[in-house]
Amino acid sequence: MVGPNWPNDGEIDIIEGVNDNANNAMTLHTSDGCSIDDGAFTGTLTTSNCYVDAPDQANNAGCDIQNQNTQSYGSNFNSNEGGVIAMEWTSSDINIWFFPRGTTPSDLEAGTPDPASWEEPVAQYQGDCDIPSHFADLQINNPSAFADAYWLINSLNVYQSDGDVAAVSEVAVSPAGHQKNETAPLLNTPLAMGGGLSNPPGRRAMKKGRSLKGGNRIKS
Question: Catalytic site residues?
Answer without folding.
Answer: 11, 16
